[in-house]
Amino acid sequence: MKRIKLGLGMQILIGLVLGVAVGAAYYGDPTIEGYLKPLGDMFIRLIKMIVVPIVVSSLIVGIAGVGDAKKLGKIGGKTILFFEIVTTIAIVMGLIIANVVKPGIGIENSGTLAKTNIANYVNTAENMSHHSFADTFVNIVPTNVFDVLAKGDLLAIIFFSVMFGLGVAAIGEKGKPVLKLCEGIAETMFWVTNQVMKFAPFGVFALIGSTVAKFGLQSLIPLGKLVITVYGAMFVFVFVVLGAIAKLYSLSIMNFIRVLKDELILAYTTASSEAVLPNIMLKMEKMGCPKSITTFVIPTGYSFNLTGSTLYQAVAAIFLAQLYGIDLSIRSQIDLMLVLMLTSKGIAGVPGASFVVLLATLGTVGIPAEGLAFIAGVDRFMDMARTVVNVIGNALAAVVISKLEHQYDTKKEEEILRKIA
């Protein structure tokens, strides 16, 4: 009898379905969450364990390959400009869709909506409210390399790795042993990643199971219009905006999604972009992007190109304004857009980052931040969607920058598309 071999994506989907079933069956039972949550937390910790070594070693190898600070600056400039344009479009689209669909109209915020404790996010948000855009750029430069490595502060890690990689390239022959060491670390960590991914179906089962057991699927009903609006907005953004960008650079968005299928399923089920960071970098190299670009663009995008998160924040802000009966003028919405553009940068490593951004932002346009307590219970389900959009946007950015730099290998793309056909 022939043995059926299931791919990682299918294994994760099975874990997702089983997790939902178990969570729904034991909804309201705190003991099941006690059993499942440690397993899910362990998987997330395994992912966090491998991200920093991979980013540092891969980035040093990639930057040393570029070997030219001027050329790197050119790539960096194009990358940041692309990120700003796309995230601005995401915010504008979120505002337009929320104003047209009006997900907050007709919902009573007393009785039908349950409040969730958001105290964990408040202190972080208060600190952010005193955090200017200039501070974000100042904090890119680390005062202690080991401290930012321990905290997983990606922007500061990227800055150090870029400088170190340029230094390795600058000293020529003397730098080759260091380069070989970093290449060895990168290859080793990718092997470790493959082993960690074997645990992914169990991690997904535990994460989804504990979430459903805690909140229950019925928590989606009162806020169903908001959830549907967010998912619809994400769908439109991926297939219209990102689809148009992909087409502009001779790429089918459907084929692109098929290439990233396993990573997107994992990102959706874990609601964690970090869970797929190593695999996305590797997959984009296999698709034709050079290592020097993937290792710079994709990690940087995790702080500057969170299109799914910014789109969600715009929709959620307008939803809360409608919930409280606040009529935001065009001027107020423009102010909201500008504030979101600034506050959404450089906080990817903060737990509940989108919540923290909203808490720090809503007060600037007169929306009560306490309203977030009403949507906290379904935030996990919306987080899953915005994580997928973040991943697609960052992976696509690597292709765009590679093509702008005329370093994209179309033969590799043809080969990988032939394999999935």
TrEMBL record:
Domain of life: Bacteria
Species this chain originates from: Pelosinus propionicus DSM 13327
GO cellular component: plasma membrane
Xref: SUPFAM superfamilies: Proton glutamate symport protein
Keywords: Cell membrane, Membrane, Symport, Transmembrane, Transmembrane helix, Transport
Family matches, as Gene3D superfamilies: Sodium:dicarboxylate symporter
BP terms from Gene Ontology: dicarboxylic acid transport
Descriptive protein name: Proton glutamate symport protein
Pfam family, one: SDF
PROSITE patterns: NA_DICARBOXYL_SYMP_1
Stretches that traverse the bilayer: 7-27, 47-67, 79-101, 154-171, 199-217, 223-245, 302-326, 347-367
Molecular function GO labels: symporter activity
Subcellular location: Cell membrane
Membrane topology summary: Multi-pass membrane protein
InterPro entries from the UniProt entry: Na-dicarboxylate_symporter, Na-dicarboxylate_symporter_CS, Na:dicarbo_symporter_sf
